[in-house]
User: Fold this.
Amino acid sequence: MSHDSSGDLTRTLRERADDVTGTALTFDDVRGRAGQIRRRRRAGVAAGVALVAAVVLPIALLGGAGADKSDPGPANPSPTHAVDPNAAGVPTLQDDVIIYPEGPRIPVRLPRNARVMSFTPLWTDRFVISTLDDDGTKISLLDQNGNGVDHFPTTGGSLAVAADRSAVAWMGTDGSPQLLVAGSDAPRTLGRVPGVMPALVAITGDCRTDCEVVGRSQDGKGEFDGSWAASSNGGVRDLPTALPAVMDATSDGDLLAAITGIAADDIHACGGVYDVGAADLLWDTCEDNVFLFSPDGALVMTLFAEGAGPLSLTIRDARSGAPVATYDDGLIKSWAWEDDDHLLAVVAAADGAVSLQRIGTDGRSETVLDGFHVDDPTLDVPLQLPRS
Assistant:
């Protein structure tokens, strides 16, 4: 993910619609307990923040050029049974180790100069990560021990993930989404999508039978060229023209969150939630440009991501847009839903203290992990949440 401090949201919308941005994270010497971290500044780590036209769950940059990966790592967990992604909690990525709150610690074995852009569990026994190294961007499929199963080329680092983590999708190099369903070690190539610089944002339906990968594209001039849904059965259909840039979709596909245009100040973007059945926009706002539905689709998290990163977020009723809870206590580096009623957020304070916060619909926040520290919270933090 790149860092754009220009503040020109209009240019961001028109020129950066490819999903290659997010929060740049450096993972330092975490040994399983945050309070025991021994920080090592890594070279070549880019500053990062979610840019409007490319927003997905923030990415991480692991082991940048010059990083020292020779130190002893955490013990190999050698799990003896599969991890239920819905029971073991939401994992974090810490110093190249995927750590479940109530499960194993799984070292991710990466080339020395590889940087992780995004990661997600794939059901019970696989992980999918997107990485960037000297040879470009690629998708890696890992087994439950963190060993590489296979690697696939891609045009960007974004991942689209099913709500139950039973499927993951990314863009192939031929302009077609690649869909990997739990139980398979090889992706399925879907229909070629229109436009250029396509970005995937969500998976709807059940990929064991029929599902759709939802995304958006640009045209050759850098303008949004509309949104679309690619079916697991091979077809590609256009989404409503009122939604030039879809940002997320509920798992059943009934609601779509999208950027709908540029605000009157020519800086902010306007967007909201669209009811597919009613063929109508339920509500919109020109205050936020990032949207992420809760697993059940009843809520949507919104925030404004630009410059150094978002400083606040709002949990809203998905159908009315009414605020349910807000959080504004630091620089928000990454976020993911823990369940239908709680949002997790990695937050960096001005003094460099970094923590994982659980934010409830009652407006209360609870510290889940703390004890981390960075020199400059606008550049890197030692925690990353998975793509959701």
Remarks:
- The radius of gyration is 19 Å.
